[in-house]
Amino acid sequence: MPEQRIRADIIAADNEKRVSALKVGYEALGAKLSGEGIDIDTITENVAEFFVAIPSWGVGTGGTRFARFPGIGEPRNIFDKLDDCAVIHQLTQATPRVSLHIPWDKVDDPRQLKAHADALGLSFDAMNSNTFSDAPGQEHSYKYGSLSHTNSGTRQQAIEHNIECIEIGKIIGSKALTVWIGDGSNFPGQTNFMRSFERYLDSMKAIYKRLPSDWRIFTEHKMYEPAFYSTVVQDWGTNYLIATELGNKAYCLVDLGHHAPNVNIEMIVARLVQFRKLGGFHFNDSKYGDDDLDSGSIDPYRLFLVFNELVDAEYRKTRDFHPAHMIDQSHNVTDPIESLICSANEIRRAYAQALIVDRKALEDYQEANDALMASETLKNAFRTDVEPILAMARLKSGGAIAPVAAFRASGYRESVGKERPIVASGGGGIV
Ligand code: LRH
Ligand code: MN
Ligand code: MN
């Protein structure tokens, strides 16, 4: 039994108040779905086995380049962050893994970190390297790039940092490395597109060589920012080229916020699935750019359509299909624990809705070119309120029917607020 940061009786008392209403809702939904030939318990079991990783950098309050407004009881170090992640998992039963970001996460002793995670019942998802900002005391600056830098010493330093992330990851049980770089340019002519990409590929090949045989490497594309004229790994096409150049342990990571507004992300997902190069996701939502808003808070239909592709891939029994599901968000005005709880639920909601799509009917409508009914088939699933399924999956796994309410009832934030001082300055999710 893992150590629990919230007392079990507090969750039990909150569940007690809600369980009879949940049973009524679950039965009603079960009857509706059964009329459509769907067994609700099977869907609930699938949902209970769907997990999404928490980003260590997401449990601290984020900020913009203008200001950061810290909340109370923010994590002071990676151990505090793991405690907060454990709370999210205890309540949702949906987030047993944590994705680290080095050196934002200062890992002095990986074995001690692993022991802390083990005690909390947590494990580690992909490691994230950081060569988009300078760490104190590093020899070469990343101001003009890292893995694609014109200077070989800078490139070598960035390569070694990624290898260090792999080494830490090996000790704590991670099985993947995610590489996102900010390399690019701010002026036409500032860099040579082809030479930069050649240098980047050479650097990535050096990192790839050091990847253990049972690991995967994910490269993450992003259209712009911090470079505003050109970016070295700017879109999924370039990302696909990287993954094919590197080899069969290399895959593309899709961060939902890294595309131009209105880009058809679900179609990108379908392409990567078809050519066996979908590595995983950074889930978040956005209105304008890489806003890092809470998953499903702006466009839940788009999230559903992404999951529709993933469930379609499962339905077609796509070989070697196991994308990594991770959240990548910044919480500027909410309690990060509450936002991450809601996001994990929204992601599971999209999955549950995608699971109840009548795939046979959809296929028939597609074959018959019945555009309206094909669309209605998706909409019928999307319009279904699957909350009773999500709540029942949580309850059956030992979580909370209403996780935010249970979190508030627990007083966890107030209690850690007494031991963790407010950190007034600092940017992003860096604590
Ligand atoms: C870049 C990014 C990438 C980083 C994270 C902090 O915008 O999405 O995944 O590692 O944000
Ligand atoms: Mn990301
Ligand atoms: Mn991003």
UniProtKB/TrEMBL annotation:
InterPro entries in the cross-refs: L-rhamnose_isomerase, L_rhamnose_iso, Xyl_isomerase-like_sf
SUPFAM superfamilies hit by this protein: Xylose isomerase-like
Alphabetized GO MF terms: isomerase activity; metal ion binding
Keywords: Isomerase, Manganese, Metal-binding
UniProt-recorded name of the protein: L-rhamnose catabolism isomerase
Organism, scientific name: Microvirga makkahensis
